[in-house]
Amino acid sequence: MISLPMMLVLYPIHKLWGDPCRRELPTFHWFLLELAIFTLIEEVMFYYSHRLLHHPTFYKKIHKKHHEWTAPIGVISLYAHPVEHVVSNMLPAIVGPLVMGSHLTSITMWFSLALIITTISHCGYHLPFLPSPEFHDYHHLK
């Protein structure tokens, strides 16, 4: 309900930086650079927006909804108040591709990776070769 309208608003803005649907695909090296920049921007923006949402003013009204689930289940990673979804889930993920004027294939790969990693961090299982979600599980118990 929120993601589609926001994408429709952001698409014309994205076109100002470069056509995301251009014919030429990005090279693999360029994609890796984009991925590094996307990750850096997303990590910083998510960290500070999440810290802000833990402030008592915002926690009760907005972020508490996400913490209602204390059992680790991957699907609830995006269970959030609409304001939190925009500020903490969507904006950190989309700013990198907007800044870089990225191709739709880069954006699709980035969103897929971001969603998979977010789901894994909420799944409650320590999977081989992946970061442990134990800290995040503890975070939800508080």
TrEMBL record:
Residues 36-141 form the Fatty acid hydroxylase domain. GO terms for molecular function: iron ion binding; oxidoreductase activity. It comes from the Eukaryota. The lineage of its organism: Eukaryota, Metazoa, Chordata, Craniata, Vertebrata. This is Fatty acid hydroxylase domain containing 2. It is found in: Membrane. InterPro entries: Fatty_acid_hydroxylase, Sterol_Desaturase_Related. Keywords: Membrane, Transmembrane, Transmembrane helix. It comes from Rousettus aegyptiacus. GO terms for cellular component: membrane. GO terms for biological process: lipid biosynthetic process.
